[in-house]
Amino acid sequence: MKEVMPNTFDVERLEKRIPMTVFVHISGQGRAPGVETAFTENVSSRGARVASIRRWRPNETLEIESLPGNFHARARVAYCQPKSEGFVIGLEFLEPSGRWVVNTPVFSGKPLQG
Description:
Elements: E1 18-19, E2 23-28, E3 34-43, E4 47-52, E5 61-66, E6 72-83, E7 86-93, E8 99-103, E9 111-113
């Protein structure tokens, strides 16, 4: 009898995430309008993990804006997972602009930007 392999893949990120808490405004469109103040758990120039009180659907688009700094982006919700208080959402930045409030670690020498 032939064994069936599960159809799962480990995807390695193109860029490491940096643990960083930054307050952000996230605002939905269409089904979930309104603005929420939330915070990041980690970030990269391509995306972020954000703690949210709202449940988001994968592939929804939203706007994210850092409260300190001048970063903003249109973003796609990659995932939404329940957390003890609310949810965590993985965001993929689609149209990033500006900079976060901190630079990447000293070894890279490049500021974290969209």
